[in-house]
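Cross-check.
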Amino acid sequence: MAKEQGGGPPRYRQLADVLIGDISRGRLKVGETIPGELELVARFKVSRHTVREALRVLDDLGLIDRQQGVGTVVRARQSSPSYVQSVRTPSELMRYPADSRLIVAGTARVKANRQLARLLDVRTGSDWLKVSALRRLKSNPLPMAWTDVYLLPEYADIVPQIGKRGLMVYQLVEATHGEHVEHIQVRIRAGTVTAELAGPLEAQVGAPSLTVVRHYYGRGGRPFEISISEHPSDRYMYSLDLLRGWQSSDTWTTK
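Predicted model, tokenized:
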């Protein structure tokens, strides 16, 4: 498979296009099991992350079904519309108010033990730069969130810029090092404010909270930034609009 050129589509999109073509032309027939992940990795010389993202695109388009114990089966020759949320840039995903800023409270080099590795979904023993910060609004004296940002140590030089230019951390990494965001994973879970964070957040211990975990993956499926933000529930709201439409190669979409 050809490498990405300049502003061309990421590799998982290229692979998805190849598989979509095989299905639409009948090379992969409805009801037929498509090659497994390892076979696709070897055939197209891409990472497993790239293969999984390509299959996710086909799944989103209604072309395949993933059946446990069977494999990935072709479901239809033509894609079907789905309900999607489209954004032009990753900064529109989970956007914070324009007047909010991260205020860095401290940094530390950490090695992921088993507990942290499970939380971040990274390899045990991997090295990270942990940047702890409060997110504040100019219009509100109470902090919005406490955020721990885990960066690859090679990007440590962007830390002095955090909160100074109105850019998100991943944008600073892109601008300074030429990194390219290929995929973002966002997880939200309910919880309560811990004793450790009650003070900085000016909240009561045990008060309801929402934790938002974001993974930013670069070329080759490598996570280069992982952020964990703790929001007291009365200071956080997220809304989205879903449109019936098609997946598009020039937008970021969520289902």
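Residues 190 and 214 are 15 Å apart (CA to CA). The longest helix spans residues 11-24. Passed to J.P. for a second look.
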